[in-house]
UniProtKB/TrEMBL annotation, chain A:
It comes from the Bacteria. It comes from Thermogemmatispora aurantia. This is ABC transporter permease. Residues 1-21 are annotated as: Disordered. Keywords: Cell membrane, Membrane, Transmembrane, Transmembrane helix, Transport. The chain crosses the membrane at residues 71-93, 139-158, 170-188, 208-229, 250-275, 309-330.
TrEMBL record, chain B:
Pfam families: BPD_transp_1. CDD domains: TM_PBP2. Its main location: membrane. It comes from Thermogemmatispora aurantia. The keyword Mitochondrion does not apply. This is Sugar ABC transporter permease. One of its GO terms (biological process) is transmembrane transport. Residues 112-324 form the ABC transmembrane type-1 domain. PROSITE patterns: ABC_TM1. Keywords: Cell membrane, Membrane, Transmembrane, Transmembrane helix, Transport.
């Protein structure tokens, strides 16, 4: 069934020039959010087709044979190579800083290479910063965020796309209008809200639910999943219904399995966003046993001035490893996701 | 939901008889047509009603969450901006007093000036850098994926890591920046302690950490520029620069516009850099609107005044939000 379902989609992939022209004219977002889900193609297909037709850029192959153009090309290449030092340099500075002794790290002028690498800094920081506790908290916050966001947005997107209840355009508008309101403008009322929920009068301060629940209201997830579910042919879900499947069964056995790529993108983005989140957990979680790593690092760096600086750097390295590893593992999905939403990763 | 799973008869008629069904599905549809004819009008209406109820059941979690954690706080924010709220005593109605206080605060003008300056600087660097990077990387025949990876990597760093790392790099004594300057025999600076350089220094941090994702969006847009346009322009005798100006840039203009609006909205919410690196200093040179809101609420415990300022920020952002919505409105027409 899966292959039968993918076949017609691939024909509509943005490959032909005609489609591309339309895509660029109407805005890329439409082609990405509409039918042409680039991520449906396997890596092999994507690379082969882009080599066949898409490799034509501003520079023509003919131009590149001219010596002057070739020279300029390599100058730009070198400039870019030097440019990557501005992004990789600070990362190296962090990793190597964590290896320096506490004298060397404040030495003036600083050393570019640790004179006596203190590998024990990393293991000491692991213990002094109580990283197992805070890493675990961050992990729990991320896991809860993924579960809740997937549940909330997938069910809503399924209802809007396949069950189509009355008044769905009004509901759709009510969801998507929230995209226009950046969460920081209701940060203060949200905090008041969390500290005393209406009707039930429960405080979610110092409760992970106080972090999980507000982030579950994510209209972008619904937007992405709904447009993905829209590409699943109605014939498929109707056929399952004729076989006696309930709406729930259609949802869990057909719609969700077919949407694994979209769910994967949302999962990865939610994990990374939750891992990086700082301000809201800082406000909600004042109990240090519940805090995620980012909040803990902030507190450690501020109050605890006697924390050796290289330990703080080691803590920063530990904090950045998970998202970087996730990125290296799921580069393709993340790049597609960024293109899809135009959002900051 | 379980009730419908237990009912054995195939109930749902396809909305329209689809002629070209997939292999197995065609047979099922035919069987469904028969069953459909056997159903009485009452049960058909009941079925339609049940389907509606199911639709709302599936929407329920999202509706609840959005109502409680988006729609309600947004309304609450407007209400609180006319109240005195300190989370200890019950809220009391104070009319426009919060707004008057906010406008009378000398920090109000400073915070807006800084925020707008931050946005301006961020556009100056942050708008051009990713575009130029994307244009250059897209032309590369070598190391394209390495460049993409290397320039995107800072985006993956958690903001807390980025700000602490840069605070150290800006350190006048042990920082990397002054060390590099002294290597080429240039005098170092007190980057963060000098009101002249503190704000641009924070903009540099923000740009460093955000440019990669904008670059990725441009790279994708550039790949959508049709090869036939380049070839046609070439046949017409257009050189490199004219192809860039008349083919490439017009093709990615919608995305450029979208990114401009998104960047303005994002940079006007600047918080974490001034909060953690400079704490609004020196001499309020990096105090942003959001930092002022935070100060009102969590240092002065005046949630009403903080809400009033939030409402003002919201009005400004909503203006840009409306532009954003216009640019992306075709996304919502997917229904």
């Amino acid at each position: 069934m899966v292959t039968e379902y993918n076949e017609p989609l691939l024909e509509q992939e943005p490959g032909s020039d005609q489609h591309r022209q339309r895509a660029s004219a109407d805005g890329l977002a439409r082609s990405l959010l509409g039918r042409g889900w680039r991520w449906r193609r396997s890596a092999a297909e994507a690379s082969s087709s882009s080599e066949a037709s898409g490799e034509r850029t501003l520079l023509s192959p003919l131009m590149l044979r001219r010596p002057l153009v070739r020279f300029c090309y390599w100058v730009v290449f070198l400039l870019l190579l030097v440019g990557t030092l501005t992004t990789l340099g600070p990362l190296y500075w962090m990793v190597s800083g964590a290896l320096k002794s506490n004298v060397e790290i404040f030495q003036r002028p600083p050393t570019f290479w640790p004179a006596h690498p203190q590998w024990s800094n990393y293991s000491n920081a692991w213990q002094i910063l109580q990283l197992p506790l805070y890493l675990g908290n961050s992990l729990m916050l991320a896991a809860g965020a993924v579960l809740l966001q997937l549940l909330v947005s997938a069910t809503a997107a399924y209802a809007l796309s396949k069950l189509r209840p009355w008044g769905r355009s009004a509901i759709l508008f009510a969801f998507f209008a929230t995209l226009m309101v950046p969460p920081v403008v209701y940060l203060i009322p949200q905090f008041v809200n969390i500290s005393d929920l209406p009707l039930i009068h429960v405080s979610l301060i110092n409760n992970w639910a106080g972090v999980w629940l507000p982030e579950a209201a994510n209209a972008f997830n619904i937007l992405i999943l709904k447009s993905f579910f829209d590409t699943i042919p109605g014939e498929l879900t109707d056929a399952a219904r004729l076989d006696g499947a309930s709406s729930w069964q259609v949802f869990t056995r057909i719609v969700l399995p077919l949407s694994r790529p979209a769910l994967a993108v949302i999962t990865i983005f939610t994990v990374i966003a939750s891992w990086k989140d700082f301000l809201w957990p800082l406000l909600v979680l004042s109990n240090s046993n519940l805090q995620p790593l980012m909040v803990a690092l902030y507190h450690e760096s501020g109050l605890n001035a006697n924390l050796p600086f290289s330990y703080l750097m080691a803590g920063l390295v530990f904090a950045s490893l998970p998202p970087i590893l996730l990125f290296l593992l799921f580069q393709r999905q993340i790049i597609r996701g960024v293109n899809l939403t135009g959002l900051k990763g | 939901m379980s009730r419908s799973s237990s009912s054995p008869s195939p109930l749902s008629p396809p909305r329209e008889p689809a002629p070209a069904l997939m292999s197995g599905a065609g047979l099922l549809a035919a069987r469904g047509e028969q069953a459909h004819r056997r159903l009485g009008p009452l049960s058909r209406r009941l079925w339609a009603l049940w389907r509606q109820v199911q639709g709302y059941l599936f929407l329920l979690p999202a509706l609840l969450i959005f109502a409680l954690f988006v729609w309600y706080p947004v309304v609450l924010g407007f209400v609180m901006s006319f109240q005195s709220v300190d989370l200890i005593n019950p809220a009391t109605w104070v009319g426009w007093a919060n707004y008057r206080h906010v406008f009378a605060d000398p920090l109000f003008a400073i915070a807006w000036r800084n925020t707008l300056a931050f946005t301006g600087y961020a556009l100056l660097f942050g708008y051009v850098v990713p575009l130029v990077l994307a244009l250059a990387i897209n032309e590369m025949r070598h190391g394209k994926s390495y460049f993409r990876l290397a320039f995107y990597l800072p985006v993956m760093l958690p903001p807390i890591v980025t700000v602490f790392l840069w605070r150290w790099m800006y350190d006048p004594d042990s920082g990397l920046l002054n060390a590099l300057l002294s290597l080429v025999h240039l005098p170092g600076r007190l980057w963060l302690e000098d009101p002249q350089t503190a704000l641009p220094a924070l903009v540099a941090v923000a740009t460093w950490s955000a440019a990669g994702s904008t670059m990725l969006v441009y790279l994708a847009a550039l790949q959508g520029v049709p090869a036939s346009l380049y070839e046609a322009a070439e046949i017409d005798g257009a050189g490199f620069w004219r192809r860039l100006w008349h083919v490439t840039l017009p093709c990615i203009r919608p995305i450029m516009l979208l990114m401009l609006v998104l960047q303005i909205i994002a940079t006007m919410q600047v918080f974490i850099e001034p909060f953690t690196i400079t704490d609004g200093g020196p001499q309020h040179a990096t105090l942003s609107i959001l930092l002022l809101i935070y100060t009102y609420a969590f240092q002065n415990a005046d949630f009403g005044e903080a809400s009033a300022l939030s409402v003002l920020l919201f009005l400004v952002l909503a203006a840009f939000g409306l532009i954003y919505l216009r640019l992306t409105s075709h996304m919502l027409q997917g229904d």
